[in-house]
Amino acid sequence: SMLPRSLQRACRAAACRARLPPAAVPGTWPQSASAVTSRASFATAASSASRPMETWEEVELHRPKTPTLEGYVRPAGAPEQSDITREQYHQFMLGKPMRYSVELRNFLMGIAVVSFCFAEFAFTIYKLKPDDLDWVDEERQRAAAAKARIEARIAAQEKKEQSDITREQ
Fold it and tell me: Is pLDDT larger for residue 27 or for residue 50?
């Protein structure tokens, strides 16, 4: 329950003094519709007393009621929905309704933007593609020549180091 325990005890004691059913005590949930009406009658009975109303009693009095269609009678001069003219409908709608919804337009715009991006990627790849692949073989030959030069330099350096070691001995 939402009320502090001390306030719940005070309300239960007041309910016992007033000989009300336990469902009318705040802090407990009513089990039936009659319990709800007894809670409301308890609030009105308490408000008619000489003491000021407590917060929960005031809340109970001003709690909104659920609307129902019981007893509803259509006003005599009310027009039927199907009786209005097309001009009256457009006047009520503040102009003609849109041909395509905002959601559809946003979806189509998103598809268009993504398609444009993919088309740009494809066009870039197409434009940057080389005309011939002979340069790949040339680069492989250059890399092989550079590797051979580096290995020859390393071999010469190792040979020089070994000759220096043998001279020192």
Answer: 50
- Closest-CA residue to 39 (of 3, 27, 70): 27
- At 132, phi and psi to the nearest 5? -135, 160
Contact 1, 28 (CB under 8 A): yes
Q: Which pLDDT score, from 0 to 100, does residue 34 have?
A: 46
Distance separating alpha carbons of residues 43 and 53, to the nearest angstrom? 8
Q: What is the pTM (predicted TM-score) of this model?
A: 0.32
What DSSP string describes 68-134? --TT----TTPPPGGGS-HHHHHHHTTSPPPSS-HHHHHHHHHHHHHHHHHHHHHHHHHHHS-S-SH
